[in-house]
Amino acid sequence: MRDSRPKLLMIEDDVGLQRQLRWAYDNYQLLIAGNRTEALAILREERPAVVTLDLGLPPDPDGISEGMAALRDILAHAPSTKVIVASGHGERSSAREAIAQGAWDFYQKPIDFDSLGHIVGRAFHVHALEAENNRLAQTLSTLAPNGLGQIISADPEMLKLIRTAKRVADTRATVLIRGGSGTGKHLFARGLHEESARSKGSFVTLNCAAIAEASLETALQHEIEQADGGTLFLDDVESLPLAFQAELLRYLEKRTVTRPGDHRPIPIHTRIVCATSHAPEPMIADGRFREDLYYRLAEVVLHLPPLADRPGDAVLLARHFIQRDAPALNPQVRDLAEDAIAALDAWSWPGNVREVENRVKRALVLAEGRHLGAHHLDLAGATTEVEDSVSDLKSAREEADRQAIRRALARTGGNIAAAARALGVSRPTLYELIRNYGLQAPSS
Ligand SMILES: Nc1ncnc2c1ncn2[C@@H]1O[C@H](COP(=O)(O)OP(=O)(O)OP(=O)(O)O)[C@@H](O)[C@H]1O
Ligand SMILES: [Mg+2]
User: What's the CATH number of domain 390-436, 1.10.260, 2.60.220, 1.10.10, 3.30.1450?
Assistant: First the structure.
């Protein structure tokens, strides 16, 4: 008989623990992997909705490098998977890092089977709700804004990038999208596709980092053909091995492919959009990325700023995600609490927009009441000394000035001239402000 229990993949290298897990979670179809390779094979084959991941995997059982690599692979392959990471030895910082990279939740080792069971149960629940939500969103997609219009920002630099993207969407120009993890590269790539006449063709994503070198040649060829009349999105393009860089260049020059065993070139009309979170210049300088290919791929460059450099956007995005996800996850929740707004502004967002999205989703699941507080977002420590001192308009404005100055100084590495320029004041004025507000003047 077919097993109808939900599939749960547990990645754990300790054989004794594996046995206990099987025994503790018999309400799931338990799939167990002892390392990253096994885990990925199972993921491809079985598509489990929820995965638990021990960050300390061989060959790095005492560190987290292999576990973090596994997390990236899982999410690259199946982004909707709910990954719950185990942090050993009371290591909260590695759990935080994993959450910033897209893990859904974490638990502390040694395992308490009951509480892990609750987290797993909730993860399945949220996954099912999201799947349902996506299904509804698909049905409603004719009404919802699509393309570049879905990109939320009030930041002048971002708005400029969106305008540029709109202008080039319906051309053949290749576009390279740069930006840190979770800054919205994929969203821009999709938007470029949706706002072009090619939106009738397919949008095909090839993740150059997630594919084994042995299968890249066929993958590249196959995906270029798949995207005929549409868009081919090459994600993590910097990982393309040199041999395939040559092949891609050949395609871009001839706009044809040939099938194995057949020498007739087949013309293909595919728009190429690439993304990278690495600076290409050093890779070009030391020969890992072909310069000629780079210029072919980067006819237009969109460089997405980190979220920390878009003041106000974190709050805007958090509100957007509440509106979008509260109906499915927690319809009671309407908005952010005051302390959450302060914390969202103060946090440094290493995981950029994806981190906002993950924190809001998690908070929605946890919160009771109408407002999400800083503690629901796990940002209770992130507020600055600001909020309780703000009593009237004058001190609020002064505090805002103080923050803007601190941020400008931080961003310019303490360079007064550059900070003054960024703030739109003269150097003497900035010196005076620093003195008046009792800020630390940078030593030069
Ligand atoms: N400006 C934005 N407005 C609304 N949603 C956004 C915005 N930027 C990113 N997102 C959402 O945040 C998540 C991460 O964005 P996306 O996948 O595009 O990032 P990425 O740059 O491709 O990340 P990575 O480098 O990790 O692949 C997605 O769910 C995306 O829809
Ligand atoms: Mg991406």
Answer: 1.10.10
User: Does the domain formed by 308-372 have CATH 1.10.8.60?
Assistant: yes
Instruction: Give, in words, the CATH class of 147-303.
Output: alpha beta
Tell me what the mean pLDDT of segment 255-259 comes to: 83
Does 389 have pLDDT greater than 50?
A: no
**pLDDT (mean) for 318-333:** 93
**CA of 179, closest atom in ligand 1:** 21
* Residues bordering ligand 2, an ion, CB closer than 5 Å: 186
Closest ligand 1 atom to the C-alpha of 75?
26
Minimal-distance CA residue to ligand 1 atom 18:
184
Q: Atom 23 (ligand 1): residue with closest C-alpha?
A: 182
pLDDT digits (tens, 9 = 90+) for 166-194: 999 999 999 999 999 999 999 999 999 99
Domain ranges within the chain, ordered by starting residue = 7-139, 147-303, 308-372, 390-436
Could you tell me the pLDDT band of residue 131, with boundaries at 50, 70 and 90?
confident
Does residue 388 have a pLDDT over 60? no
> What is the 3-class SS of the chain, one letter each residue?
CCCCCCEEEEECCCHHHHHHHHHHCCCCEEEEECCHHHHHHHHHHHCCCEEEEECCCCCCCCCCHHHHHHHHHHHHHCCCCEEEEEECCCCHHHHHHHHHCCCCEEEECCCCHHHHHHHHHHHHHHHHHHHHHHHHHHHHCCCCCCHHHHCCCCCHHHHHHHHHHHHHHCCCCCEEEECCCCCCHHHHHHHHHHCCHHHHCCEEEEECCCCCHHHHHHHHHHHHHHCCCCEEEEECHHHCCHHHHHHHHHHHHHCEECCCCCCCCEECCCEEEEEECCCHHHHHHCCCCCHHHHHHHCCEEEECCCHHHCCCHHHHHHHHHHHHHHHHHCCCCCEECHHHHHHHHHCCCCCHHHHHHHHHHHHHHHCCCCEECCCCCCCCCCCCCCHHHCCCHHHHHHHHHHHHHHHHHHHCCCCHHHHHHHHCCCHHHHHHHHHHCCCCCCCC
